[in-house]
Amino acid sequence: TEADALEVSHLGKVLIGNWFGERPLDEQLLLQNTDQEPPYDTILADYLIGAMDGFSPYQQDLMIPKLAKLLKPGGRLYIVGLEPIPDTAPGDANIICKVRQIRDACILLAGHRCYREYPVEWIQRQIKTQEADPRLTLLRTTTFPILYRHSTIVNQINVARGKFPSFPTPELAHQMKVVLDNLEEQSLRATTERGRIRLGFDYVVTSEKQAGGTTVTN
To answer: Among 13, 82, 103, 130, which has the minimal tally of Cβ within 10 Å of its Cβ?
Structure first.
């Protein structure tokens, strides 16, 4: 099974599937036959919202309500995400922006879908407006600055290179290879001279499901 291939089947009950689509994940299995009572004290959504556009586009606003429904009263939901990389940035950080643009261009040229990260304010708004669940309360938000090494940048460049076989023409792939090779050289010079490049941040948004009909607002 896929869980065996990922070497996680020994960790407990593992369900793998899509929350949406033609064959969505059976939420009854997630309830673990507990007479429909929400079974989970803690839910960790690890970069889930940002990944959805690649698999379940246009459903992002429906994801948090699904998770909140599975949370026990007093339980906590942790949403981990990446603040979207801007179109431009000052100094050497602009290399990161360029790599993101070219990587996404390569993904689209290959006929695939890009991930779409959501800003922390969007996540907070989903919880504060109580559209996800009127009992879900925003507790705190923690941010973690990102420092890019050369190897980290090259990993994203290699994602783009991996799309070449699906390009419409070999000529287009060759031209994009030239662009990516140039970006790799630029990133090597920048990180050699200045060390790691700081741009953007990861975040963890923590919310809690209040018991009964009690609602707390921040």
So the answer is: 13
Direct distance between the N- and C-terminal alpha carbons of the chain, in angstroms, rounded to an integer? 44
Burial of 106 (0-12, 13-18, 19+ CB in 10 A): buried
Residue with tokens 């499901």: 209
How do residues 166-210 score in pLDDT, each as one tens digit?
999 999 999 999 999 999 999 999 999 888 999 999 999 999 998
3-state helix, strand, coil in the chain (%, to 5): 45, 20, 35
Model pTM?
0.85
Q: Which of 207, 211, 210, 191 is nearest to 199 (CA)?
A: 191
Give per-residue pLDDT as tens, 73-122. 999 999 999 999 999 999 999 999 999 999 999 999 999 999 999 999 99
Given the structure tokens 């407990």, which residue do they identify? 12
